[in-house]
């Protein structure tokens, strides 16, 4: 190719060669099979290693070539290829991505969700000899098209994938992307599945362990998310006002909710002898720590099975049931919004649809 390789690179960059980062150069050379010792490699290395334009990717590729590493594998500056071949996570620099998200104060659940989405995408790319650092819009489109055409994902999955990719390109690569193929994805507003009051009573009745039953009772009776239930501390419970404080809920804001007078004895027994800052629902395996989300989910699944409930419901259905039953009982929608911690009233209005659905089975007394 001779000097033509610089022209090809300039055309792909759409302008000045100075804009090429190590990541971009690594992908550019890998896509064209340019390896140490080739004319194209020497020409690129000579250009970028002179005049203060030094790029570390050339030195790293030369070292890996000397070590006999397969240079057809994804090349990532800062991550030797022999290491990258061991794990798709290392290929797209998951550790750095996680650190960037935590610095931005993303929740643990969001970090796990974003990493999971990108790990799956990275494996898909790896099977095609590509990597996340140099992925094109067309490849993202083909990946999304495959997921959608095979009905493997929901609109929520795609919305999270879009957010994860946006964060990765912005925070790790420093190159924000518009991602047009993921624009306009609408969240489906299917009516949530709720339990009847009788079914909730059965769930509680078949759960004999005091701590487990209390967790279920608070989840329903206060409308809490799983993460909010397990974070409760002894000092968060106000027995006089029948309220509890929900710490650092979704959106990083504290809020208050209510709880039933009927569970006061159970909560008092759980609080007895414990300091205010101690966890209300503690772990038996990890001293001083709260029970895990998985434990609460398992408790719910076991209770559902014992109660003979066939509905497709989860822990979050208890929160849906709380809101729906309050609305059916005449509680103002704005009050329910505050109790649930919804930022927008539109989020809460979905329960009006659930309430209308239950009213279809009500007959007029006339």
From TrEMBL:
GO terms for molecular function: DNA binding. The keyword DNA-binding applies. Residues 88-173 form the Core-binding (CB) domain. Coiled coil: none annotated. PROSITE patterns: CB, TYR_RECOMBINASE. Pfam families: Phage_int_SAM_1, Phage_integrase. Residues 190-364 form the Tyr recombinase domain. Keywords: DNA integration, DNA recombination, DNA-binding. One of its GO terms (biological process) is DNA integration. Belongs to the 'phage' integrase family. PANTHER family: PHAGE INTEGRASE-RELATED (PTHR30349), PROPHAGE INTEGRASE INTD-RELATED (PTHR30349:SF64). This is Integrase family protein.
């Amino acid at each position: 190719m001779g000097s033509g390789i610089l022209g090809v690179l300039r055309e792909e960059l759409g302008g000045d060669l100075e804009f090429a980062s190590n990541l971009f150069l690594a992908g550019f050379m890998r896509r064209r099979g340019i390896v140490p010792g080739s004319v194209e490699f020497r020409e690129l290395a000579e250009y970028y290693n002179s005049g203060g334009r030094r790029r570390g990717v050339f030195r790293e590729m030369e070292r890996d070539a000397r070590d006999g590493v397969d240079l057809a594998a994804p090349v990532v500056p800062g991550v030797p290829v022999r290491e990258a071949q061991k794990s798709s996570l290392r290929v797209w620099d998951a550790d750095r991505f996680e650190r960037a998200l935590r610095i931005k104060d993303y929740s643990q659940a969001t970090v796990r969700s974003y990493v999971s989405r990108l790990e799956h995408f990275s494996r898909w790319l790896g099977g095609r000899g590509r990597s996340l650092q140099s992925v094109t819009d067309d490849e993202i489109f083909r990946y999304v098209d495959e997921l959608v055409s095979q009905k493997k994902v929901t609109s929520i999955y795609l919305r999270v994938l879009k957010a994860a990719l946006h964060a990765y390109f912005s925070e790790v690569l420093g190159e924000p992307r518009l991602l047009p193929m993921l624009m306009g994805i609408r969240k489906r507003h299917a009516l949530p599945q709720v339990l009847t009051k009788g079914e909730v009573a059965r769930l509680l009745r078949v759960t004999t362990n005091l701590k487990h039953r209390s967790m279920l009772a608070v989840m329903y009776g206060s409308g809490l998310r799983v993460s909010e239930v397990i974070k409760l501390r002894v000092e968060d419970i106000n027995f006089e006002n029948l309220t509890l404080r929900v710490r650092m809920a979704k959106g990083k804001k504290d809020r208050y909710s209510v709880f039933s007078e009927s569970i006061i004895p159970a909560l008092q027994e759980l609080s007895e002898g414990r300091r205010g800052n101690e966890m209300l629902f503690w772990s038996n395996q990890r001293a001083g720590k709260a029970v895990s989300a998985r434990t609460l989910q398992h408790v719910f699944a076991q209770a559902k099975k014992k109660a003979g409930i066939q509905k497709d419901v989860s822990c979050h259905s208890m929160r849906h049931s709380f809101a729906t039953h309050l609305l059916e009982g005449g509680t103002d929608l704005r009050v329910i919004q505050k109790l649930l911690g919804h930022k927008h009233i539109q989020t809460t209005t979905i329960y009006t649809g659930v309430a209308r659905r239950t009213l279809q089975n009500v007959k007029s007394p006339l």
